[in-house]
Amino acid sequence: MSATSPVRVIAVASGKGGVGKTNVSVNLSVAMAQAGRRVMLMDADLGLANVDVLLGLQPRRNLSHVLAGDADLDEILVDGPAGIAIVPAASGVARMADLDPAEHVGLIRAFSEMTRPLDVLVVDTAAGLHDSVTSFCRAVQEVLVVVCDEPASITDAYALIKVLSRDHGIARIRVLANMVRGPEEGRALFRKLTAVCDRFLDVILDHAGSIPHDESLRKSVQRQKAVAEVYPGSPSARAFKELARKADTWPVPSGSSGKIEFFVERLVGSGSFDPDQSSVAG
Q1: With 269 labelled, which of 58, 98, 102, 276 sits at a CA distance of 20 to 30 A?
Q2: Which residues contact 249 (CB under 8 A, 6 or more apart)?
Q3: Are 7 and 266 in contact (CB under 8 A)?
Q4: Angstrom distance (rounded) from CA 75 to CA 267
Q5: CB 86 within 8 A of CB 51
Q6: Distance separating the N- and C-terminal Cα atoms of the chain
Q7: Which helix H or strand E contains 206, and what residues bound it?
């Protein structure tokens, strides 16, 4: 795949914090890289960076330097496990957590200036309904919502799906059940969420799979490593490999939708594009 080929862009989101969203982002990225894909992971929790903490990295520069004009994206990239490239966010910088919509668009468009060959971009969004979450989810092809089998997680996941579908026109959302006791519990959790969404929303939910509650995952977090890297035979690592396999079958866009999107020039070059729609910020 050349530097101008379309990039599969996946946003990982959650209704609430504490459901393992960043762990999912990291391990999905590593599993896809282990399967031979060229992967970049963006820490899009702009003011409360945690991808670098989860992996024990100490980046010298981050997205705040890009926004300030002191660096471009290529200059802040950090090497991660399995060869993934990481776009680090700032930590404890209140300004970054309160960007306006135009600044979000500026960050999204900055990715179009990158020339490195890339197959997949995983965007680890902030938890909740912050403007940055909706901005980034609108700019990707796939939204993966992480949910746990607890009332607050299900309620907040529904609230996020409601906002994305009703207010921003996202018609299909993938759902990943995390920290479950087995595949059947994951399917039951998906059915709970689907039942309420089918009743009140016009949105299609797809079951992306389940990640089991696994002691190896807890150990990998303590070691600041990806479980797919240090415990490759563990139940959770195998589940992330299966998630990566599924994600690799999700359709890659054949052209731009006309919305503000990551790597839009690569989409324009890949298929049909209506210039009359290019100014639409969907």
Answers
A1: 102
A2: none
A3: yes
A4: 24
A5: yes
A6: 28
A7: strand 204-212
Residue with the two structure tokens 């010298």: 60
In whole angstroms, give the CA distance from residue 181 to residue 253.
Answer: 35
Positive/negative CA dihedral, 188, 240, 21, 257: negative
CA–chain centroid gap for 53, Å, is: 17
Give CA–CA dist 66/217, Å, rounded: 33
List 85's β-bridge partners, or say none.
40, 79
In this predicted model, which residue has the larger pLDDT, 133 or 280? 133
Residue with tokens 């799906």: 161
Report strand pairing: 85-87 vs 78-79: antiparallel
pTM check: above 0.90: yes
**CA distances (Å), origin 50, targets 55, 80, 233, 260:** 9, 14, 25, 26
Contact 160, 14 (CB under 8 A): yes
The dihedrals phi and psi of 214, each to the nearest 5 degrees, come to -145, 130
pLDDT digits (tens, 9 = 90+) for 233-246: 999 999 999 999 99
Give me 202's structure tokens: 């016009």
Residue 180 bridge partners (DSSP): 212
Backbone angles phi, psi at 5, to 5 degrees: -75, 155
